[in-house]
Amino acid sequence: MKYNVIERGDEISKQLTDRFHVLAAQQGMPRDEENPDIVLSIGGDGTMLQAFHKYVQQLDTIAFVGIHTGHLGFFADWKPDELDNLAALMFSVTTPEELRIVQYPLVEIEITTGTGVETHLALNEFTLRGIEVSLVAQLHINDEMFEMFRGDGICISSPAGSTAYNKSLGGAMVHPSLEAIQVAEIASINNRVYRTLGSPVILPKHHHCDIYPKAHQNMLLSLDHLYMQRSDVVSIRCRVASNAKVKFARFRPFPFWNRVREAFIGYDVK
Ligand code: NAP
């Protein structure tokens, strides 16, 4: 198996990365930055987002695993002092087929402009927000007008991303085995002209939602930690990605609800 490491850049993450390279060299595990089979993210959940987007075109062939060098992460669930243990488990696997994998659904975004269509994937969420003025957009569900939105913005999250920005917006925690996306409002304005549901909505895999922003509106779009400013968007189709999932290598069980409890409530029963 070939590996690569993506690290946050702080001193602890760098030291752990150096240590992993030494262990891998001793075990004869080759490093391949272009075409790894397994990518070790050392840092936080933000580091895993960077790793995901670096290899977003190779999701079929790559499994991710994360060590957190800050607080417990959702994607980075190994502690720094467990590096040698994790490395030994990784080295005991010789082919990618032997890895125990969990797969999580992703958000797929299709942006239509006057000149074409572009497709993007997000691990956590896609957001669109107005710049300087409120975002004004029509939201359709399954090709039918649902509501007229006016406010700060709209967040479309994956189940894995439900614990991130979505949570701050009052969205529900969604188990990543559910193939769904969640639409959450960011500070909607409600009056007689602009009326929104006011609650997050969860759509199953076979549903889609289309967002039609007011023409030539200047907006800030985000895919996880990546931002782009756009004023050429005609519509945005959001759905569960049909042909792509993210794969995480699991070397021990760590149930999603235990992560939620440990991250947000604080009981550590291990
Ligand atoms: P950041 O602003 O430096 O950090 C955002 C925080 O979100 C970090 O504590 C990060 O954990 C945590 N996080 C990321 N993914 C998570 C997940 N799936 N579940 C629980 N927590 C998660 O930004 P960043 O590190 O570049 O990450 C971008 C992400 O930040 C976006 O995808 C968005 O979800 C989140 N965000 C949240 C808010 C908010 O809650 N108000 C606002 C903007 C963006 P680590 O410290 O382990 O990296």
Automatic annotation (TrEMBL):
Task: Give the UniProt subcellular location, in the record's own words.
Answer: Cytoplasm
Q: GO molecular-function annotation terms?
A: ATP binding; metal ion binding; NAD binding; NAD+ kinase activity
Family matches, as InterPro entries = ATP-NAD_kinase_N, ATP-NAD_kinase_PpnK-typ_C, NAD/diacylglycerol_kinase_sf, NADK
Which residues are noted in the entry as NAD(+)-binding? Answer: D45, G46, N124, E125, R150, D152, A160, T163, A164, Y165, N166, K167, S168, A187
Active site residues per record: D45 (proton acceptor)
Record-level GO BP terms: NAD+ metabolic process; NADP+ biosynthetic process
One Pfam family this sequence matches: NAD_kinase_C
Key words, A-Z: ATP-binding, Cytoplasm, Kinase, NAD, NADP, Nucleotide-binding, Transferase
Family that this chain belongs to: Belongs to the NAD kinase family.
Chain's role: Involved in the regulation of the intracellular balance of NAD and NADP, and is a key enzyme in the biosynthesis of NADP. Catalyzes specifically the phosphorylation on 2'-hydroxyl of the adenosine moiety of NAD to yield NADP.
Protein name in the entry: NAD kinase
